[in-house]
């Protein structure tokens, strides 16, 4: 849309230049006393009038602000762009990212990337092609303020599930677990020098415990090596086995995150058949009950997959009823041609609306925006404050002697 608008405005300029050349032959061009040709007055006059017309335009359609500001009485959901056909609609202005800085101006970004390569660790930032990787890994490199964060993905880079929105590689028989991964992960986090880390996992349905014991070992190793670190574990549903959920919830993590991903109606078309909307709610609710509310729980919703407004509202209600404390909402972007297509681009005002509604429902924190992802670093600043406030109050122990990790089979 923005490109077509730009080209449309350029055509009159080109046409005016052609007309001016036709109307004023070289032999008849006005000349000054020295015989030199005067400036092309026709072009100057046209450009003056053109600039004046743009400056006085009141339609709101000829500027970037016009795309972002909604007319009065127009609901935010009505401003979304869609339905879409691949190749027919460019990204709207609010999804255009700034050009990344050069390597010399991103020391934090380069340090984290080099660290991951050396230790052969995977990150969901790269595997899932997250658009915020420069901002999160850079941690405010350009401004010099901010904290670099990264999402480390444990248990390899191959997932046994095939969700239709995700670009992580899928395999029925992934490589065996690396017994050295807990130590490598702890070393990598220590080298990063970060205050907040997100540890996520691929689903490993090929393992009897879904990899729960391995996750616990990774969390424990990271916390022992980095005692002051705040750690968020973004994990799967472990086949819906609540004993495995308890095992992970009883580890020394700070935030238990599990994404519901989308509204209930479209879940079968979006997520792998082994995942379900109700199973995800059951996992989140059980964590809250098992820890007696001491554990901060978090989930995420994607927009642009065919959901309706009331369905998003109901999903927020369901999450809050399950005891979820923090939620993020972001725009789904198709990572490759083999993944689900985007049904619509939600307007920034719609994300603002959902943030307000979520906070009104009682969520302690909500990050809502077109480029927000479940591990988006903007949310972690606020979550850190919540966790530090809770540290001043002695929380009941959630560990259980029966939850000692056993080897993943």
Can you describe this structure?
Its EC number is 2.8.1.8. InterPro entries: Aldolase_TIM, Elp3/MiaA/NifB-like_rSAM, LIAS_N, Lipoyl_synth, rSAM. Its main location: mitochondrion. Residues 142-364 form the Radical SAM core domain. This is Lipoyl synthase, mitochondrial. This protein is of the alpha/beta class. The chain has a single domain (103-393), classed as Aldolase class I (TIM Barrel, Alpha-Beta Barrel). The chain is 39% helix and 10% strand. It has 14 helices and ten strands. The chain has helices at residues 2-23, 41-55, 64-68, 107-118, 124-127, 133-138, 181-192, 212-225, 242-249, 267-270, 277-290, 309-321, 348-361, 377-391, and strands spanning 122-123, 151-154, 158-159, 169-170, 196-201, 230-234, 255-257, 296-303, 326-331, 365-368. The strands form two sheets. An eight-stranded mixed β-sheet has the order 1-2-5-6-7-8-9-10, sandwiched between helices. Helix 7 runs parallel beside helix 8 (212-225) and helix 9 crosses helix 11 (277-290). The chain is globular, with a radius of gyration of 26 Å. The protein starts with a helix and ends in an 18-residue tail after the last helix. Mean pLDDT is 78; it is low at 1-9, 19-24, 141-145 and 395-399.
């Amino acid at each position: 849309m923005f490109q077509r608008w730009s080209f449309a405005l350029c055509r009159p300029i080109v046409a005016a230049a052609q007309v001016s050349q036709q109307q004023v032959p070289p032999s008849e061009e006005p000349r000054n006393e020295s015989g030199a040709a005067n400036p092309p007055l026709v072009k100057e006059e046209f450009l003056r009038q053109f600039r004046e017309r743009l400056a006085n335009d009141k339609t709101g359609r000829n500027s970037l602000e016009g795309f972002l500001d909604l007319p009065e009485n127009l609901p935010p959901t009505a401003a979304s762009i869609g339905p879409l056909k691949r190749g027919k609609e460019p990204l709207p202005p609010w999804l255009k990212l700034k050009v990344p800085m050069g390597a010399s101006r991103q020391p934090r970004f380069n340090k984290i990337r080099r660290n991951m390569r050396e230790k052969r660790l995977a990150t969901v930032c790269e595997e899932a092609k997250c658009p915020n990787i420069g901002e999160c890994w850079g941690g405010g490199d350009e401004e010099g303020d901010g904290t670099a964060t990264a999402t480390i993905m444990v248990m390899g880079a191959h997932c046994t599930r095939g969700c239709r929105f995700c670009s992580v590689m899928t395999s029925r028989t992934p490589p065996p677990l690396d017994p050295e991964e807990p130590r490598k992960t702890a070393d990598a986090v220590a080298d990063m020098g970060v205050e907040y880390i997100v540890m996520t996992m691929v689903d490993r349905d090929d393992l009897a415990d879904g990899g729960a014991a391995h996750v616990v070992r990774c969390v424990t190793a990271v916390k022992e090596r980095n005692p002051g670190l705040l750690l968020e574990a973004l994990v799967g549903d472990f086949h819906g086995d609540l004993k495995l959920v308890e095992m992970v919830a009883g580890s020394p993590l700070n935030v238990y995150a599990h994404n519901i991903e989308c509204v209930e109606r479209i879940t079968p078309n979006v997520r792998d058949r082994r995942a379900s909307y109700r199973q995800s709610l059951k996992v989140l609710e059980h964590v809250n009950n098992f820890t007696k509310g001491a554990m901060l729980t978090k989930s995420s919703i994607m927009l642009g997959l065919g959901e309706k407004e009331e369905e998003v509202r109901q999903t927020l209600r369901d999450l809050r009823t399950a005891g979820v404390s923090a939620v993020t909402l972001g725009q789904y972007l198709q990572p490759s041609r083999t993944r689900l297509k985007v049904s619509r681009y939600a307007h920034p005002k719609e994300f603002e609306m959902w943030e307000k509604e979520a906070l009104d429902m009682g969520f302690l924190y909500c990050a809502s925006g077109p480029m927000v992802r479940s591990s988006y670093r903007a949310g972690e600043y606020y979550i850190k404050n919540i966790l530090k406030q809770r540290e001043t109050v002695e929380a009941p122990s959630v560990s259980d002697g029966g939850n000692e990790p056993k080897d993943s089979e």
